[in-house]
Design goal:
33% strand; alpha+beta
C-alpha cells in the first residue's frame, strides 16, 4: 500500500478485532441469547469493543443492550483468540463473569434471552460451548 501523502510503500497490518462476551450469573443459572443476526443460534451476550471504550465498559454495555440487565461484580475470566472462533472474521474475545438480579429480556441483537443451567444448555454458536465448559470447570474448583 502507498502512503497517500508521501507515496512511499507502507506495511499494512491485519489484526484480530477485539470483542467481549459476558457470562451473567443469576441464582445458579446463566443468561444466553438467541441471536437475531448470523450466525444464528444461542450465544453468550457480547459484541465488539467500540473505539475509545474499555473492555469492562463494553462488557457492561453489551450485557445491558442484549439482555436489559445491569450487571455487577464484573470480573475478567479469560481471553479466547482462536482465529476460527468466529466465522465472520478473526476476533479475540475477553470473557467476563458478572452477576445480575433481574430476569433478562431480549434487546438489540437478541431475539430471545433465557436462563440455563449446565445441564440444560442448548447448542451454541462460535466457541461459546468451550467457554462455558471452561467456566463450569472453573466454578467446580472453587
Amino acid at each position: 500500500m502507498l502512503c497517500p501523502k508521501c507515496k512511499e510503500k507502507i506495511k499494512v497490518y491485519r489484526n484480530p478485532v477485539p470483542t467481549v462476551d459476558i457470562i451473567i450469573e443469576i441464582n445458579g443459572t446463566i443468561v444466553l441469547i438467541r441471536r437475531k443476526n448470523p450466525p444464528h443460534g444461542w450465544a453468550l451476550p457480547g459484541g465488539f469493543v467500540d473505539y475509545g471504550e474499555s473492555y469492562e465498559t463494553a462488557a457492561a454495555r453489551e450485557a445491558e443492550e442484549e439482555t436489559g440487565l445491569v450487571v455487577k461484580d464484573l470480573q475478567q475470566f479469560r481471553t479466547y483468540s482462536d482465529p476460527d472462533r468466529d466465522p465472520r472474521q478473526h476476533t479475540a474475545s475477553t470473557v467476563f463473569i458478572a452477576r445480575a438480579g433481574q430476569h433478562p429480556t431480549a434487546g438489540d441483537d437478541a431475539v430471545e434471552a433465557k436462563l440455563f443451567t449446565e445441564e440444560t444448555l442448548p447448542k451454541l454458536v462460535f466457541d461459546h460451548g468451550k467457554i462455558l465448559a471452561d467456566y463450569f470447570a472453573f466454578r467446580k474448583k472453587k
